[in-house]
Amino acid sequence: MKQKQQKRRKSSNVLLDTALQEFYGAADEMGLSERLISILSHSERRVHVSIPVEMDDGSVEVFDGYRVQHSTALGPSKGGIRYDTEVDMDECEALAMLMTWKCSLAGIPYGGGKGGICCDPLNMSKREKEKLTRTYAARIEPILGRWSDVPAPDMNTSGQEMVWILDTVSKMRGHLEPSILTGKPVAFWGSRGRNEATGRGVATCGLELMKAIGRNPDTATAAVQGFGNVGSYTAKTLNDAGVKIVAISDITGSYYSSNGIDIRKAFEAVHKHPKKLLEGFDKIGNCEKIENDLYADAEFLFPCARDGVINRKTAGKIKARYIIEGANGPTTPDAEEILQASGVMIVPDFLANSGGVIGSYFEWAQNLQGAFWSEEEYNSRLIHIMKGNFRRVWDYAEAKKVVMRRAATMTAIQRVADVVEMRGMFL
Q1: Pick from 13, 237, 337, 377: CA 20 to 30 A from residue 274's CA?
Q2: Active site amino acids
């Protein structure tokens, strides 16, 4: 008997609707039961908290904070905490769902989670950010735990915020809880290699793609959008492998040189800038400012900034033939249709940028054991897993004659669905 198709979710939020429609498309193609589709299209828990903060001028502002646990079928939910003016519940839910597939595809024992605070961190003092972070930590403390929910840094957060959260929760519980967070500084239960892991993983996928298509890195050109933690180490790893980086960018603009950007100088410029930005780099980096590095004349494009940047308006202007997604959800479905029609190949985000969560898993495992690895061991394990995951998706896509995003999604969903079936529903 043909199963009855239940009502399916839609969202006015572009990122959440994109995540849902990609899930539904893959699930239908796999022949997944409507029972499993219903379960996996909804998050297990969505938490919304208010965060009152006394600002430096004596006024009080109340910020909105969120934490979403999409799935804990495979293990504790895992996902970053971001600070940005665009953060809302729908964005967190979409990113939590993508984290579920990312962790599943990576073969690590995590489910998907995501959180954040709607704020403008660039216009806040360190003291204000500490108050904001500690109050947020206190409000979401009941759902945090090494076997329940393990956050990490994300957009506009770093190891410092993780220390504040860890310190707050540990004091509330009366004992140290190092394994409830990852992305901590090396000096305080962190892991050597973790800071560079996401970017190194993105670059590794790019280099594996070059190998798969028979392209020599020494003659390849690339543009990297975003020069934060992910983009900067993506650019550095590619550059170290011989790839010419012709364009980089951040919120201050896009910087281009046909002769190749000096990545070492770019790192130095960011390190010296008070807000860690590329501002003024065109004057010291022997390069020029351009409209948008998405449109740079490069064979490979690495969007490592934020979601939705490759959309119906921008897709037709992209010159790259290969896109490796370092950010979460940088390409909208309508843009992907345009790009596919033009023969552009896309390596999806939850494959390409999974180095961060794999690195987080390494840190978590070390924290649970109280034993630490060398950076060489960490990097060796990371690259080995990234290469294996890329090859698994590439081979699946070739065998099934589907694009890489669909191949990755189907592979990831199947693992979660199998475990949900095994565990059953708690009634």
Answers
A1: 237
A2: 114
Alpha carbon distance 246, 263 (integer Å) = 10
Say yes or no to pLDDT of 256 above 50.
yes
The mean pLDDT of the chain is: 94
pLDDT grade for 345, boundaries at 50, 70 and 90: very high
- pLDDT tens, residue by residue, 352-371: 999 989 999 999 999 999 99
**pLDDT at res. 14:** 85
- Are 358 and 387 in contact, with CB atoms under 8 Å apart? no
22: pLDDT strictly greater than 70:
yes
Residue 100: closest CA among 39, 11, 164: 39
> What are phi and psi for residue 254, nearest 5 degrees?
-110, 140
For the segment 274-301, the average pLDDT, to the nearest whole number, is 94
The CB-based long-range contact list for 288-291 (8 Å cut-off, 24+ gap) reads 288/255, 288/256, 288/257, 289/253, 289/254, 289/255, 289/256, 290/247, 290/254, 290/255, 290/256, 291/254
Residue 314 in this model has a pLDDT that exceeds 50: yes
Return d(Cα 206, Cα 245) in angstroms, integer: 13
Measure the CA–CA gap between 182 and 197, rounded to whole angstroms. 12
